[in-house]
Amino acid sequence: MLKNTILKNMLGLLAGLLFGFGLLISGMTNPAKVQGFLDVFGAWDISLALVMGGGLAVAIIGVQLAKRQKTSWIGTSIDMPTKTTINKKLLIGAMLFGIGWGLVGICPGPGIVMLGTGVWQAYVFIPAMIIGMLIYQWLEPKLNG
User: How is residue 71 annotated by DSSP?
Assistant: First the structure.
């Protein structure tokens, strides 16, 4: 069991490093580049659309392969998401995410990578993101109750 846990953690570390380097190389950690991508009616920068398309293609292949397996390569279970409905909470969350991404040009993954590069905006963005998550965690039972 310990060997499985170590292997799982090592694979997770390698995947995270690969993801982080990909974000750095593609420019996803540059807020100005991201905002250029989001400025579809101005000086639109299509390069990040190509990065996202490449990531989507890899993810589709990975998900299709995972669906055919009962267990992962290291023997752990593969738990695929079961929710397929689009509801009000999802739409509101997506809109808030998009507004925040458009305003500052940073989303969670690149924001965490940016912490390691010393970009000052990350030191504002990540705490603000955590505060937002804590506020949601506090409000969510009150909204559903």
Answer: B
Residue 100 has which token pair?
């925040």
* DSSP secondary structure letters along 27-62: TTT-HHHHHHHH-TTSS--THHHHHHHHHHHHHHHH
Q: In the chain, what is the greatest distance between 2 CA atoms, to the nearest angstrom?
A: 54
Element (H, E) at 69: none
> What is the C-alpha separation between 112 and 98, in angstroms, rounded?
18
Q: What is the pLDDT of residues 56-81, one digit of tens each?
A: 999 999 999 988 888 887 777 888 88
- Assess contact for 33 and 45: CB atoms under 8 A: yes
Residues with Cβ < 8 Å from 127, sequence gap 6 or more? none
77 in helix, strand or coil?
A: strand
- The pTM for the full model equals 0.72
Helix 31-38 to helix 88-104 angle (10° resolution) is 120
Closest CA to 93 of 39, 40, 129: 129
Give me the amino acid identity at 4: N
DSSP string, 114-130: HHHHT-HHHHHHHHHHH
CA 51 to chain CA centroid, Å, is: 13
